[in-house]
C-alpha cells in the first residue's frame, strides 16, 4: 500500500493536486458589487486593550471609567483605531487576501460613536472603482466603500473608502506612464522656521499657528517615542482583527516577495504613529481621517516613529470643552523614510476648562 506520508510520494502528490485558493483577483470585482462579509467580530475589552496597549494608545479615557466619564463617555469606549482596524480586518478574506498592497484610505468617519465593548460588528463593502495600474501589469487598483455596522441595530459605526493593488489573474500590457510620472520630482519647498506648540491643548495649537502665520514658518515637530515591530504587532494584532492577509503571518510565502518578510498591517503602523502623536496632545474626540497613504513596507525589526504638522484649528466642536484641529501625521522608520501619511481631524481639549 502506498504510504502518502513518504516525503517523495507526498511531494509528487502536492505537485499534482489542485490548490483550493483563497481570496479574489482583480477580475472578480465589478463596480457596484456589494459584498456582505461573513466574518464577524465582537469588539471585546481584551481586543481593544491589546490593540491600544501594543500601539501605545494609552489615553486614560479608553482605560479608566473615571477618565472616560470626565470626557462624556459612559465607560471606556472602543478606540476608533481598533474599530477601524477591525472593520477592515473582517473584509480582507473577500477583498485583499489574494495579496497586493494596501495603498491608502480616505473619508474614515465614525457616525455611530462612541462604541462600547460587547458590540458585534457586521461589515459590508461596495466596489466603487477598479482601474488598470499603468506601472504594474500584474496588478489592478480597486477601491471599496466599507461600512462597519452594529450587527444588532444596523447603525453604521465606521465607514471609509480604501484602495488596494490587487493581483490580476492575467497581466495586461501597460504604457508605463505611472512610472514616468513618478520620476518627475518637484523641488522641495520647506519653510524657514518650524514651530512646536508649547503644550497639547487647543489654545497651544492656535497660538503656534498664529505665530507661524506671521513668518515663513510651519507648525511641525517630531514625537520622541518609537515602537519596534515584533511578532505581536506584525502577526498577532492583524489576526486578532480576523485579517487573513498572508503579508502579516506567512513567512514562507513572503520570503519570496519584494519585502522578503512578513510586513506590518497598515492599520498597526498608522495607529502606532497616531499613538505617539496623541501622547503629546489633549485629545477630546477623534473626528476622521483623510488622504491616508502607505509609502513603503514596515517589517519585524523596523521602528515606527511619528512626525506631526498642524494644518488648522477651529473654535468649533461637539463640546464647549474642545476645539477642532486638523493635523498631517507622517509615520517614519529608523532610516527616516516615510511609511505612512494622512490627515486627521480631532477635537482637542481647551485648557481653560
Ligand atoms: C505599493 C508600492 C510598492 C508602490 O510604490 P511605487 O512603485 O513607488 O508606486 P506608486 O506610488 O506610483 O503607486 C503605484 C500605483 O498605485 C497608485 N496609488 C498609490 N497610492 C495610491 C492611493 N493612496 N490611492 C489610489 N491609488 C494609489 C499610483 O497612482 C500608481 O498607479 P499606476 O501608476 O497606475 O500604477 C509602495 O507604495 C509600497 O510599498 N507601499 C506600502 C504598502 C504597504 O506596506 N501597505 C500596508 C501593509 S500591507 C496591508 O496592510 C494589507 C492589508 O492587510 C490589506 O489586506 O489591505
From TrEMBL:
Region spans: Disordered: 167-193
Keywords: Lyase
Bias (Acidic residues) ranges: 182-192
GO terms of molecular function: lyase activity
Top-tier EC class: lyase
UniProt KW Lyase keyword: yes
Chloroplast keyword on record: no
Recorded superkingdom: Archaea
Pfam families reported for this sequence: MC_hydratase
E.C. numbers: 4.2.1.148
Record-given protein name: 2-methylfumaryl-CoA hydratase
Taxonomic path: Archaea, Methanobacteriati, Methanobacteriota, Stenosarchaea group, Halobacteria
Amino acid at each position: 500500500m502506498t504510504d502518502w506520508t513518504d516525503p517523495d510520494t507526498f511531494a509528487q502528490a502536492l505537485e499534482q493536486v489542485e490548490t483550493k485558493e483563497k481570496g479574489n483577483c482583480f477580475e472578480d470585482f465589478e463596480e457596484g458589487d456589494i459584498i456582505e462579509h461573513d466574518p464577524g467580530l465582537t469588539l471585546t475589552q481584551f481586543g481593544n486593550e491589546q490593540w491600544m496597549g501594543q500601539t501605545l494608545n494609552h489615553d486614560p479615557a479608553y482605560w479608566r471609567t473615571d477618565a472616560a466619564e470626565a470626557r462624556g463617555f459612559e465607560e471606556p469606549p472602543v478606540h476608533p483605531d481598533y474599530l477601524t482596524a477591525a472593520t477592515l480586518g473582517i473584509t480582507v478574506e473577500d477583498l485583499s487576501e489574494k495579496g497586493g498592497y494596501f495603498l491608502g484610505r480616505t473619508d474614515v468617519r465614525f457616525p455611530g460613536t462612541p462604541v462600547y465593548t460587547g458590540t458585534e460588528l457586521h461589515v459590508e463593502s461596495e466596489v466603487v472603482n477598479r482601474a488598470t495600474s499603468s506601472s504594474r501589469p500584474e496588478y489592478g487598483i480597486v477601491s471599496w466603500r466599507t461600512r462597519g455596522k452594529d450587527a444588532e441595530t444596523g447603525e453604521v459605526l465606521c465607514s471609509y473608502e480604501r484602495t488596494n493593488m490587487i493581483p490580476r489573474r492575467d497581466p495586461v500590457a501597460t504604457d508605463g506612464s505611472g512610472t514616468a510620472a513618478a520620476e518627475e520630482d518637484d523641488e522641495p519647498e520647506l519653510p524657514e522656521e518650524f514651530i512646536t506648540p508649547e503644550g497639547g491643548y487647543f489654545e497651544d495649537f492656535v497660538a503656534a499657528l498664529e505665530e507661524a502665520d506671521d513668518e515663513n514658518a510651519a507648525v511641525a515637530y517630531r514625537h520622541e517615542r518609537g515602537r519596534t515591530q515584533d511578532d505581536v504587532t506584525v502577526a498577532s494584532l492583524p489576526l486578532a482583527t480576523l485579517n487573513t492577509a498572508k503579508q502579516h503571518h506567512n513567512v514562507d510565502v513572503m520570503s519570496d516577495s519584494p519585502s522578503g518578510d512578513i510586513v506590518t498591517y497598515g492599520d498597526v503602523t498608522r495607529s502606532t504613529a497616531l499613538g505617539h502623536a496623541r501622547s503629546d496632545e489633549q485629545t477630546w474626540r477623534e473626528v476622521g481621517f483623510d488622504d491616508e497613504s502607505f509609502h513603503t513596507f514596515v517589517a519585524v525589526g523596523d521602528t515606527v516613529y511619528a512626525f506631526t504638522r498642524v494644518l488648522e484649528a477651529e473654535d468649533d466642536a461637539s463640546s464647549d470643552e474642545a476645539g477642532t484641529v486638523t493635523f498631517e501625521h507622517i509615520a517614519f522608520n529608523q532610516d527616516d523614510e516615510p511609511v505612512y501619511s494622512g490627515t486627521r481631524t480631532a477635537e482637542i481639549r481647551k485648557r481653560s476648562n
